[in-house]
Amino acid sequence: MGEEFLFPLSFQQARLWFLHQLDPGNAAYHMPVTLRLDGELSMETLRAAFQHVVDRHEALRTRFEPDTQVQAVLESWAVTPELVDLSGLAPEARRRELDRVRLGVLREPFDLWSAPPLRVVVVRLEPRVHVLLIVIHHIVCDGWSLGVLAAELSAAYTALRGGRAPELPDLPVQYGDFALWQRERLSGDALREELDHWSRVLTGAPAALELATDRPRPDVPTFDGARVVRALPEPVALGLERLAHGCGASLFMAVLAAYAMVLCRLSGQDAVIVGTVTAGRSRPELEGLVGCFIDVVPLRVDVPAGLSWAGLLSRVRTVCLEAYAHQEVPFERLVEHLQPVRDLSRTPVFQVMLNGQDTPRQDLSWPGVEVTGEPPEPGVSKYDLTLDLHRNTSGMLLDLEYNRDVFEPATASGLLGQVAAVLDLMAAAAPDTPVEAALTGLRPAIGHRDGFSGRRIEPPATGSRPGEGSRVPPDDAVEARVLRCVRDVLGKEWLGVTDDFFDHGGSSMLAMKLALDIEQATGYRLVLRDLFDDTTARGLAVKVRAATATYELGGH
Fold first, then answer.
1. What secondary structure letter does DSSP report for 74?
2. Measured by CB atoms within 10 angstroms of the end CB, which terminus of the chain is less buried, N or C?
3. 133/209 same-domain check
4. Model pTM?
5. Within this chain, do residues 405 and 513 fall inside the same structural domain, yes or no?
6. Domain extent at residue 547
7. By C-alpha distance, which of 238, 233, 241 is closest to 396?
8. What total number of domains does the chain contain?
9. What confidence tier does 463 reach under pLDDT thresholds 50, 70, 90?
10. Where is the Carrier domain (predicted)?
């Protein structure tokens, strides 16, 4: 592999690094690409084309340090596509085995600490029919990057197949340069001003979207997901664009207005926070890079009574434009600043998403091979609901990804149907039509609103320092060592063994530092989930003692 070059993590990577520490086996942040290849495929040319792309992009040959937020770029790394030959199986057995292989490739955990998180598998179905499976961890890739990868792979394969060296434009910067620039830019007064803006926007917003669910919410989500899709015809899309443009808004804003209105109606709330992704490529030299630039921003939409469509769209337009103007604040830093009520069963700040799918489409033509993109493998849902909007020549496609932990297919389909019904009404409405006209017929989703069982921890009643009399001293040396670590990380000497780490300024990033400090002090490495199961020094000491006893009983 040769020499390694070290860079700090970007803020986007830091969040994903932490989540991987918390649950290394979670495939929610694996990004898959599936391509069907019909024709005379050259495995050697494919390997060489992949190698050319990996050599160009440092992000694709990066591993990560497990104990510090550092990424190590490898000087070189050989990528070798794995070939799985199913051509000898009967057609039905071949289809079943392809599904099994595809799911396995998607869900197999990555070892971020030892090797770049890129996996390439070619499945041979027939001599001239192959399926190319590519999975990359989100920590080095985003949706835009997949388009860059596909375009460069096509160009490299085409050139190499013709006996020529690939000619791709030079990359003026690499991802490590972006991480350094971002860390320098988002610091000090500039960061504080941005965080103050988001505090003002989100003050008074609902702590969570309380939709009725079909089953109790599990303590820890499994991210088990599925999708429902609904197409809207071209006249509806044109009508929505006409209404939106007449109000100075976009099609995305019109869909957000309808989505927020339905969610408010079904939850009984008069405001909702909807997350949306941002490309994060604010400089032109970043557009051709593979890397994790994408982030999310919260869109707070209030839907008070008495609005017209023009009034609602004006409100949504303002929300979106302000969010885009302040989108550079990394979401993880925003969460740390806001310190929302912690609920391990839900994502913080928002639980629903809306995305407009506008990443550039790429030419996938290869010489002698017809390349067809296949839809992503269902089965992963990072949020309760994620609605993707696709605009095409025949109209609009609404693609709703839902969390099967809490929603049945019929419920998700019904909710999507209600969004589509509101959009249909909007398309034919005049700007001054009252919004309430669209609420008739909307009905609450089936299920039980209070069915979740997630662990919710309310913030402390006051932020004041407790008196000396409330401090509980350690009972033994283990508690003393753990408490010493907690005090050092938080910088609060008065804390006792029963004080909650998160109630006194702890955050996800500080939790990672605490885990490392406790390992150095006691010899036992906490799993990050331990820090959420019991967040006091006394509770963590119990885990340290139990681990030590197990280690000694094992004869070590």
1. E
2. C
3. no
4. 0.74
5. no
6. 460-553
7. 233
8. 3
9. very low
10. 473-548
